[in-house]
Write a structure and sequence with these properties.
11 strands; two-stranded antiparallel sheet
């Protein structure tokens, strides 16, 4: 193991192992000011691309994955990580720990080749589609801690496109966070809606166990979606009766979300 890989492991793995405790701290009164400053600094801005491949879109309307593809295509640099620190930290048994996320932007050039490999546009997009095929959820945004852990000084020009599993990803700890942090940390794609067809729903509870954000309940024998749903689409992918639908009806959402993400990380 090289020096940079060792340093990254030393910082990242303990952090991911303590994610639940870290999110719980955001609920304490003394931490509210620090949490607000953390959010106002532009430190984090994430959105998710639905994993569900049957997202309903109007004719000639771009699929949600277009957002990630466009950012990859327009970025100045792309690298693919050699492992997923979340899955390594939690010794994931269901998803491959060696399947890494993609970092894009000029700051990605500073990441050591010990922990990543350079990628062409086609290779990075192929990694994205492979993640979807594996049932992983693309999760895009900027976290200054990534730069610190990876030895990147150019935080402004670095963005992560993570491929998150439902068991180990740092976002699984979000349910323990304060309301401010939950609302600001991950935002649903503009115009995306998740609905339940009451005629098909049998109230089996599969979606309840599938939702890592705990935004599903069963009431009177039918699934109900919480107000803080992030639209990842895992519930739709898991529903055995096809009762959950993910749809997009907001024209121009690609431009909107791309520009919003760029406001945090110019890639």
């Amino acid at each position: 193991m090289g020096r940079r890989e060792w340093q990254s492991d030393l910082i990242a793995i303990p952090f991911f192992r303590m994610k639940n405790a870290a999110f719980r701290l955001s609920r304490l009164p003394f931490s509210k000011i620090a949490t607000r400053r953390f959010l106002d600094s532009g430190n984090m801005a994430f959105t998710q691309i639905p994993v569900y491949e049957e997202v309903e879109v109007p004719p000639d309307f771009p699929a949600p994955v277009t957002v990630a593809e466009r950012l990859i295509e327009e970025s100045t640099c792309r690298v693919i990580m050699k492992k997923c620190y979340c899955r390594v930290a939690w010794d994931c048994q269901d998803y491959d720990p060696s399947f890494g996320c993609v970092f894009i932007g000029e700051g990605a050039r500073e990441i050591s080749p010990e922990v990543c490999r350079p990628a062409t546009v086609d290779e990075a997009i192929a990694q994205l589609h492979s993640a979807l095929a594996r049932g992983l959820v693309p999760f895009m945004g900027k976290f200054k801690g990534d730069g610190i852990g990876l030895g990147v000084k150019d935080h402004k020009h670095l963005m992560a496109i993570c491929f998150c599993c439902p068991c180990c990803c740092v976002r699984t700890g979000l349910t323990h966070a304060s309301q401010d942090l939950r609302e600001s940390l991950i935002r649903k794609l503009p115009g995306l809606e998740v609905t339940v067809d009451p005629e098909k729903c049998a109230g089996c509870g599969t979606c309840v166990s599938a939702c890592i954000f705990r935004q599903r309940t069963v009431v009177d024998g039918r699934a109900v979606i919480g107000d803080d749903c992030k639209g990842c689409g895992v519930c739709a992918a898991r529903c055995p009766r096809g009762a959950t639908h993910v749809s997009l009806a907001e024209p121009g959402y690609v431009d909107e979300i791309v520009e919003w993400l760029r406001s945090y990380a110019d890639v």
